[in-house]
What does this fold into?
Amino acid sequence: MNRQKNGYRNLLVLGRNLKAGAKYEPEEIIAAISLIEEQLLWTPVEDFFRLFPPIKRYADDGTWDYKSTLKMIEEDLGERFGKGDFLNLLMMGCYENPFVNRVGIAFMKATSELYRKKTGKSLLEEAMKHLFLR
It folds into this structure.
């Protein structure tokens, strides 16, 4: 249980720092999120949503709403976080906590920036290339 508490504490601290305007290198963001993912591995998904409730939007407008979030939790995540589950959840934005949202956005930006540094192309350029080459 201590690992899990540390994971949630680290998640909130990182999110609060990001919301306050702290600047981190992409490698630092990835390292911090990797640590949080490791701390949450095999912990109950239900605990995450107890601390960070699903988004309360009820309109089915094609974005995350309460019903689609509950369906995703049940069908895709299961009872405990497996490898990669936390990272996928982080990028979905299906929860209302502004600090967790900041961490998700920072993760996507850091991933994109590291990819651009490595390849010289953005992830969006690569995605569009693959989308139109089909």
